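Good day; I would like, with your permission, to put a structural problem before you. The record follows directly beneath this note:
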Amino acid sequence: MPSNDSSYDREAVRRVLDRAAAEGRSSLTAPEGRLVVEAYGIATPGEGLAGSADEAVALAERIGLPVVLKIVSPDILHKTEAGGVLVGLRSAEEVASGYDTILANARAYKADATIVGVQVQQQLDSGHEVIVGTVTDPTFGKVVAFGLGGVLVEVLKDVTFRLAPTDTETALSMIDGIAAAEILRGVRGAEPANREVLADLVVRLSNLVTDFPELAEVDLNPVLATAAGATAVDVRILVDPAAAVQPERFTDEEILASMNRIMRPASVAVIGASAEVGKIGNSVMKNLVNGGYQGEIYPINPKASEILDRKAFRSITDVPGPVDVAVFAIPAKFVPQALAEVGAKGVAGAILIPSGFGETGNHELQAEVVKVAREHGVRILGPNIYGYYYTPENLSATFCTPYDVKGGVALSSQSGGIGMAILGFSRAARMGVSAIVGVGNKADIDEDDLLTFFESDPNTQLIAMHLEDLKDGRSFADTARRVSKTKPVVVLKAGRTDQGAKAASSHTGALAGNDKVYDDILRTNGVIRAPGLNDLLEYARGIPLLPTPQGENVVIITGAGGSGVLLSDACVDNKLTLMEIPPDLDEAFRKFIPPFGAAGNPVDITGGEPPSTYRNTIALGLSDPRIHSLILGYWHTIVTPPMVFAELVVDVVEEFRAKGIHKPVVASLAGDVEVEEASEHLYRHGIVAYPYTTEKPVAVLGAKYRWARSAGLLGGQPDGR
């Protein structure tokens, strides 16, 4: 949506862009770039364009020495590399000589370069160097970046990203969000940068590229920031009409109209159903039948009259009643024709299990399938997937085994192998799920569609997704921001390695090639990011069990000093706040622990204590309203065996739950193999517990806190804002 600031000179920008387009240029000259950003109120140094040494001297004397000279050529983007920048020219003689030097360097660098002239620019020597830029990211579209500028951006890569356009609050969060933010505040007597002015510049630049989406990249580096203002010293702009192209999007109403029929179908047809054991069409039929699905099941096979005691049809068009979902179990080459028949039948969703499409390089066939689906209003799930489950309907539309442990977790994966891991973990952990969905190539339905459905699904309380990419990251981020206010959204993004080595035309473009863009944008839109597959699954399993904390104060109660230290480290790693114990609470804890124990935080009750010490200290932690969450560290002893510990913890937690006191409680159990059974007992009673690790329980608690902060449930600002 275009910005509505009337102070912007949009006509001036349009004139520059039209001239560049008429000349077939993909970049603007430095003077053109200056005109464009100045039209949006972004300050630049005094400057002028010289066509001769004499003109350069006259401009320098008018602007005021010292000056900087820069080559102006649409064919030389990286001016420094070409020897096209000279700084600190302090006399007329130096300016005249510098003019000739720059022209010679430019011709040596690129003999056929078009030389517009030499830019004579006021030299600014004070202020902090920062970079403000925008890039058209292939996943998220227009993204704005902020970080330390000049040569530091290349070395430190201390940059943060947000979706454009931004508002002032978001821009301020960017300025405060870099690792070197303290430098901009002024250290060791240095002048601070004006945060408000910098934030205003970020907002103006983000509005510029929103209003003119053909601006593929804009690089302001460096911007000199002082206590009084911010000046864009160097401006580089790339133009590309393709950068203005928007992905195809469905409305939420359109998504729900299709997804409700796909997830809650009254009837399912299996295209390529088979009576032969070992065939995918046979497995899908068996799973639908044996999984307990109560809707109509129609086998489609031109060579069979009956499959699994159900009448088979030559074509889906022969089925007498309506069909909501068609599961495809036929070779890829036959899909387009069968899909046209499915569309003619009015089916809402085509579940394309077959491989042999884009994942094998056959993009033409995949494009043909999408075209057929669009013509008939059919939504496609896949291709190249294992199918999907929706447990409230006992629906196992997959060639994998049925799954019947119902619960509130919805899971999806882009990879079939990861999907199998999700299924296996869920079964082993007895994790209740509402859905498990394979998205595969994402020719059509993607995570955004799933989020929209699960947001409205009363059977889903948490959404966990494995993804390798996002088809429309901007739409996903917008949806996730809304959904995560009420339901946690956990994402495992594969491919976190730096892709910034790709050729890039600007600092911003190169910096945006790495995982930082995903990390910043997902985090600031409420997504809980899991570092690995097991983390994704453990977050999905544990977060719903933990009550939402009412504040940041976390207390560790441990029977082993070593565990207490590791648990404290884990709290720091997960950005949890260890409560500073006030004197009265310290005294209260000391009544229950031996003299050689330690109150404070962690509360170390020592290893030889009886069950009553654990019980009393845990009860105190639950009863004091200043404590918001408890982390328990257990050490296996004869005095308090593992199952005794587990049972007493369950007893005291349930006692307080009955009083209406619900606090997150997680536990780390160190000991012999008996701690495994004790951990399972705790987990079955809503207490996230793990044997042999201090990191996992704290990581799950940390994930719960990240969601609660982002959703605004702790009384502070959402995470990253």
